[in-house]
Write a structure and sequence with these properties.
There is one protein chain. By secondary structure, the chain is mostly helical. It has a single domain, classed as Up-down Bundle (Four Helix Bundle (Hemerythrin (Met), subunit A)), CATH 1.20.120. Helix 2 packs parallel to helix 4 and helix 3 packs antiparallel against helix 4. The mean pLDDT is 93.
Length: 210
């Protein structure tokens, strides 16, 4: 069963077990999806309101985008798990002979690439969600503005969390050129995400506290 099809209690039970997946990647994806859903909720509470009529067409577009991002993030959870499975098996490969070591190293390198790429791709979707949430905080209903603040905080935590899964795998990659490229992309996502988080949180706090 895919993670997105599980009940919350089932997911948490598996997450807390000694099973290789779900792990931090799945948790990060879920948290970001919750953030996207919260942004979607703010839009649902804003659409059709006279006070925000000037933004109506944009709100409708953002609602579609929020739905798409939620689905992408849920899919990213499963992709992360699928990418990690071969790596967890590769760690258990024998390494007694030269041939076994050589084979293990080749399998490990391929598995590490996939295990780093999956959370990196997740980071890209999370950042897109943060950009959407920033706009939601600007034009969304003042009555639900705190939820946009919660959404951006969740997405920020998810972005930072997903980056850890990138770095722990690139650290072990022998292909240092690819590892450096992945790390550079992750660094850029983190920097942009931090700026969006700071701006959006300050905007929300300013509207709440005045």
């Amino acid at each position: 069963m895919k993670m997105k099809e599980q009940k919350i209690e089932e997911f948490l039970q598996e997450l807390s077990s000694d099973a290789p997946t779900p792990g931090g990647g799945g948790a990060a994806g879920l948290v970001a999806a919750v953030g996207a859903a919260l942004s979607d909720m703010v839009l649902s509470l804003t659409t059709g309101k006279k006070k925000y009529a000037q933004y109506q067409s944009e709100i409708e577009e953002l609602q579609k985008k929020a739905d798409e991002l939620q689905e992408k993030l849920l899919e990213a959870m499963d992709k992360d798990a699928e990418a990690f499975e071969p790596l967890s098996k590769a760690y258990g490969l024998p390494k007694e002979t030269f041939e076994e070591v050589d084979y293990r190293n080749r399998v490990m390198e391929e598995a590490l690439y996939d295990a780093a790429k999956a959370p990196l791709d997740m980071m890209e979707v999370i950042l897109e969600t943060m950009k959407m949430t920033e706009r939601v905080a600007e034009i969304g209903s003042a009555l639900a503005i705190s939820d946009a603040g919660v959404a951006i905080q969740l997405c920020g935590a998810a972005l930072n969390s997903a980056s850890l899964n990138v770095y722990i795998n690139t650290k072990l990659m022998k292909d240092r050129i690819t590892a450096a490229r992945f790390e550079g992309e992750a660094d850029a996502y983190l920097m942009e995400g931090a700026r969006i988080l700071a701006r959006t949180y300050q905007n929300v706090m300013g509207k709440i506290r005045g």
